[in-house]
Queue: 2 jobs
Job 1
Amino acid sequence: MVKAALGRVAHAFTPHSHDSADKTDAALESSSRGMRVLAISFAVLMVTAAVQAVIVVASGSVALLGDTLHNFADALTAVPLAIAFSIGRRAATRRFTYGYGRAEDLAGIVIVLLIAVSAGLAGYEAIKRLLDPQDMQAVWWVAGAGVVGFLGNEWVARYRIKVGREIGSAALVADGLHARTDGFTSLAVLLGAGGAGLGFPIADPIVGLLITGAICFVLRDAAREIYHRLMDAVDPALVDAAERIIGTVDGVQRVGSVRLRWIGHALHAEVEILVDHDMSVVDAHAVAVEAEHRLIHDLPRLRAATVHTDPHGPDGADHHATLSTHRTT
């Protein structure tokens, strides 16, 4: 009993290890895996787009041109993400006390801009060809290029989504979903080729406009995702889960505020718990440490948590009276 009590006291005054070397190693490994995914998917999409580009020159298909431009843009999104992953591995400093994980959000802004540019170029070419229809050459090659685009994008989508979910990178998952959408727009090229083969050359620019519309939908979703990250939005289900986890800790009489934010592909938490007002400082700290321990282990992608303890009771006591004029929430 004495040994257990001494161990509890020692643990209470020892910095909690879950936010030190083991968490740093996990973060570095996650970034390394993200970099590998980006390098491989970049190569696959560039080869896919290059094959399509050759057929665009031979056929003059604007639908295929729009798809090719989108695939090039999708491949190029790997560049800002790779830079962000690299920067995010840097250690925190006295200026950037939370580290450099938010570089992923800046990369997201660049990705949104690249998608917007690809939509603009595809729409321009489709409208120009709609006003001046031309016969499509090498129809079967165009159809084949659409299939190649679908297969390349779907492979990249599955790879990015799988690893993105495993390492907790919302940016990588979103980029994977973007690639999947690109795959379906590549299949739409088949419609343009089929229309041209049946003697309706106007089908090609019409499909080009449809692809432009699909790119705009992707642009909207990507912009919304980045906006949420920049505004520190999280899934409310994560807050509910955090409250449930904390509520199971012995000594926690009530759960106060719970704040979560994404920094890169890791969650950080700031929570308040209420404990018995007669509890000693050592015991109250031990409860806080256990709450932090449970959160880090049970809440997916949580890398660090700051737990603040408040006394619960006696009735009518205001333990924050001095701060009442400074608190807005």
Job 2
Amino acid sequence: MTTIAERARELTDNREPFVHATVVRAQDPTSARPGDAAVIRSDGSIEGFVGGVCAESSVRAAALDTMRDGTALLLRVLPDGAPPFPEAPGARVVVNPCHSGGAIEVFLRPMLPAPALRVVGSTPISAAVATLAAFLDFDVVAADDDAGCTAVVVAGLGKGEQEAIRAALDAGVGFIALVASDRRGAALLDELSLTDAERARVHTPAGLEIGARTPAEIALSIMGEVVRAIRVDGLAPASGTPAARPQQAVDPVCGMTVLVGPSTPHARVDGQDFWFCCAGCLASYTAA
């Protein structure tokens, strides 16, 4: 059987975001034990074991939250009526009314792929951009393929620029940096007959205005603009159709937040849909 560590390596190699969950502390009578682990994918599915169905629901919901900003989280799952436990930065406390007893602490570590960047051109500037991007832990794409790239830097200085821009736009790349003067860049984009939405994705002259002159300085200005787009503007990679985030609902019996999926206990009462954390809450609701 594939271990959680092997599965994590496989997802990492495939550049698929996931959360690695590890039970770090458990109090009887919970079924989880320290060292139990699981991976939670962006669609909310889970592989591995971090406790029973109620604890698992809390872990899955919190794991998806950590994927939004890539910040690790220590999740403490308490049974109903447990003594209060103070929250702190980097920690979250949830009270799980249907938890069988005891408490567990689960460390959630989001594993997000490094942003991929493709550099087009064989010039001193393109070489400097590739070197700096690698230093900044970008995945510098060598293949002639923009699929999955977060950004593309076109630094051909007159060679193959239009074709590179068109290919990046067609691949869904959200940030395309064209190294050119104001005048030449505007003329080149006019020849491409871009839509307003496409034109907004092409940045020329590339880079922040820092008075850059040398290839290394120009690379710094370009990568500064790319990093700002990712960290400030929320630039996402070109990934085709992203995995839809699962719908969330509140269990009307215990008040837990649950992820809605094919296996989530469900009932339709008086034309309204209700979802439950477990079969026990469903039975209690329908028996009332």
